[in-house]
Each structure stands twice: as C-alpha cells, then as structure tokens.
Amino acid sequence: MGAFKAIVVEKGGGGQSVAVRDFDENDLMEGDVTVRVTHSTVNYKDGLALTGKAPVVRRFPMIPGIDFAGTVESSSHPDFKPGDAVLLNGWGTGETHLGAYAEKSRVKGDWLVRLPDGLSAAQAMAIGTAGYTAMLAVIALERHGLRPGDGPAIVTGAAGGVGSVATSLLAKGGWHVIASTGRPQEGDYLKTLGAAEIVERSELAATPRPLAKERWAAGVDSVGSTTLANLLSMTKYRGAIAACGLAGGMDLPTSVAPFILRGVSLLGIDSVMAPKAVRLEAWQRLARDLDQDKLAAMTSTIGLDQVIETGKAILDGKIRGRVVVEIG
After folding, report:
1. Rounded to whole angstroms, how far apart are CA atoms 137 and 142?
2. N or C: which end of the chain has fewer CB within 10 A?
3. Whose CA is closest to 219, among 273, 269, 278?
4. Has residue 159 been placed in a domain?
C-alpha cells in the first residue's frame, strides 16, 4: 500500500476544485481487480467533469477519467491475473467510481476488456471512449441495413474525437463521407482521414424544417440539438442517424415528419453501460478496421499534468482528433 499521483476533483463551499495530488491506495473503492494504469485519454465528457460545467461527477472526492489502459497488478476475478493487459471504458468511472487519471485504479473485473491483439495500450487510448463510441455507431448503422451504395454518410463534429474516428471508419468501409465542422481550417486534416466533402457547421445551424432536401442515407452525430434536427430532416428515405453526443445541447427541435413520411430512424448509442459482448465486438472491429496510420495522424500525447488544461480546451473546441495521456 502507498500513495500515487492522481487528479482529484473536490467540492467545497466555493464550488468544485481540481488538482494533481498524492492519493492513498487505501482510499480506492471496492473492486476485485487492481490495475496499474499506464495510459488514459481526454474525451468531451472528461472535460465536463474536470471543469464542472455539467454534473458529470456524482461523488466527491473523485478521480475523473472514463477510460484507461494498463496492466493487472492484483486480481481475485477468475478472468484476470497479474500481468494481463486490459482496458476500460465507462461503467461510471470518473463519475460515481474513482476513475482513470491516476497511477492505479481498482474496479470490477466484469468492467474490463482484454487489450485486443494488434493494439498497444497507447493505441487503445488513442481510440478511447470516443473511438469506441464511433465504432458502436457504425455497427448500429450496418445492423440497420445501410450500406455505402445507399448514399453518403454525414459525420458532425468531424474534427473532434468521435468524428475523426467515425470519418476514418466510414471512409475505409467505402462510404462517401460528408464531414461537418465549425473549423474550416481542418478541411485538409479531415480529407486525410477520408472525408470526400466538407460542410460548414453553419449549414446545419438554421432553424430546422420538418423535411428538407434528401442529402444522406446515414450519419453519426455527436452534436445533438438543432444540428441533429437538421440531419434528420435531410436524411434519405429509410435512412438512419446514429446519435451519440450533445456538444450542441440536449434539446431536439424536430417533428415527427422524417419518421412517418420517410421512415427515417434515430439510433441511440450508449457507450457507458453497453453489455460486454457489444464491447468485445466493437474493440475487435476497431483492432481490425481502423487504419493505424490515420489513428496516429489524429493523435497527440500529453502527461497527467496537462490533463486539466486539455479538459478546458476540448470544451472550447480547440482539440483536434484524439489525445493520449501517458500516466506514471
């Protein structure tokens, strides 16, 4: 037993505070596997937790961070033994259970996934919840029966984490990808990931019409609100949009018209509590289908001491692609 470095969020009379400090291993929460964390990442949700701009953190003190990869240090779970390489996404870590921005984490073994063959811990965290969510969205579109021949696929927030991975996955799958971004300077970056067209975010920011001209058969949306409403109004007959984010807001100012007149489907994507079988499929697909060179091109690396500022930057729309956190 001993102390280790961690980012800790605390709450007092003056509100929420966050800092890197020593954390006692005795204060870790219950679990049957202790992991020596080597890598994490910064997602939009992590930015909300670090800044307190949304009530992501549900108990205090809290170690934020919803993703980690590392090596099992001790285990009483039958599926894991010391030395196993593992990763974790979600399950309330960083929200109700002490999370990933620390040199150690103790969790339930049922929450863990073995690191897939062909991926390093750093690559797994370059993917992280953002990339894993993008894969869940792509799988949902495929299960809906949609194929590249049905028409283009649009990706909103395309220069962000979910959007970057979704763009790359869809392009590799043969889709004509329309990438929507509020950062036109990222056009060349998005085209290197496989985007065929770039659409200004403002084109999807106008007051939505019940139905507009059909433009795409499928989509992956991490924005929500007016953007998602416009996507639905422009989706082709029997197309679908996979919704997985709320960067633009939680409201949805749409009508029933796309659903009852064009048979459009809105597919909800939950990554936090997804069953283990779903997670395993997504990670196996990511190890197989995601272009590692493109993953490297969309990834930057920081240390634990840079996470707090990066959390602020991701909410300000200043982060492109994915960020890996090297821990310890």
Report:
1. 9
2. N
3. 269
4. yes
Beta-bridged to residue 209, according to DSSP, are: none
Q: Do 136 and 94 belong together in one domain?
A: no
- Point out the residues of the chain with pLDDT beneath 70: 1
Q: Are 142 and 168 part of one and the same domain?
A: yes
CA atoms of 288 and 193, how far apart (whole Å): 17
Q: Which two tokens stand for residue 217?
A: 């058969």
Residues 183 and 255 in one domain: yes
* Residue 160, phi then psi, degrees to nearest 5: -80, -170
Per-residue confidence (pLDDT) for residue 13, from 0 to 100: 81
- For the chain, the straight-line distance linking the first and the last C-alpha, in angstroms and rounded, comes to 16
Q: What is this structure's pTM?
A: 0.92
**Which residue has 């659903």 as its token pair?**
259
Task: Provide the 3-class DSSP secondary structure of residue 220.
Answer: strand
State the pLDDT at residue 1.
Answer: 53
Query: How does strand 85-89 pair with strand 33-41?
Result: unpaired
Measured from the Cβ of residue 21, the count of other Cβ atoms closer than 10 Å reads 12
Whether 181 and 253 share a structural domain = yes
Task: Determine the Cα–Cα distance for residues 229 and 219; give it in Å rounded to an integer.
Answer: 12
Number of domains in the chain: 2
How does pLDDT run across 112-165, given as a tens digit for each residue?
A: 999 999 999 999 999 999 999 999 999 999 999 999 999 999 999 999 999 999
Question: If residue 243 lies in a helix (H) or strand (E), which one and from where to where?
Answer: strand 235-243
User: H or E segment at 200?
Assistant: strand 197-200
**pLDDT, position 15:** 84
